Amino acid sequence: MACSGCGYVGKAERQFDDRRAARDMARYREKGANPTTRLLRDALAAQGPLEGSLLDVGSGIAALTFELLNLGIGRATAVDASHAFLAAAADEAARRDRARAVEFIHGDFLDVAAQLPAATIVAMDRVVCCYPSYDPMLRAALQHAERFLALSYPKDAWYIRAVLGLENIVRKWKGNPFRAYVHPVAEMQRIIDAAGFRLTAQHRTWMWCASLYARA
């Protein structure tokens, strides 16, 4: 593949390691899903009874996958670049007796997208901010979405850029090659509109925007 992610898997493995996976899973078990995951879950639930399939891109510990399975989604594919997070998610799936309902795929989404089936819902919860090239990732996700795209991303504001910029400076100082990004929201919206999707729900926190799009 052309260098869209340029070693992205290695960078993701460094950032999303065993320690962070264990911490995130412990927090999920104790406190439930994080704010953007809850917002996307609730926006989808408000569309009516859920059914069909889910493609969870950048699934992490698969919190959104588990939440949507509980609401009626029949099967899910969870794709992530971190072995540690997928292992934690697989363990949780077994604990919840959901192992048969979820397929876990390791890799850069752009590397494996052609092998993945379309899904009723494609979700990218806090994912585009982790990837340098939002355009090809977003287009690939939209091509797989039969009905909904559930997307959360950092707001394009100066103070968010300042926060993520400081985090990136600290990572560089520590020798961590992973970087976070604030991508232009207007350009992402243009790509989504051109693919024939329309905004049906949107909610914000101080840092994040959680949006649900439906195929027109």
In short:
The protein is of the alpha/beta class.
**Whole-number mean pLDDT:** 95
Instruction: Please report the number of helical segments.
Output: 9
**CATH architecture classification:** 3-Layer(aba) Sandwich
Q: For the record, what CATH class applies?
A: Alpha Beta
- What is the succession of H and E elements? HHHEHEHEHEHEHHEE
Q: What is the 3D shape?
A: globular
- Give the class from helix and strand content and strand pairing: alpha/beta
Radius of gyration: 16 Å
Number of strands: 7
State the fourth-level CATH superfamily: Vaccinia Virus protein VP39
- Low-confidence parts: 1-5
Strand residue content: 15-25%
Descriptive report:
This protein is of the alpha/beta class. The chain has a single domain, classed as Rossmann fold (3-Layer(aba) Sandwich), CATH 3.40.50.150. The protein contains 9 helices and 7 strands; from the N terminus they run αααβαβαβαβαβααββ. Helix 7 links the parallel strand 4 and strand 5. The radius of gyration is 16 Å and the shape is globular. The two termini are 31 Å apart.
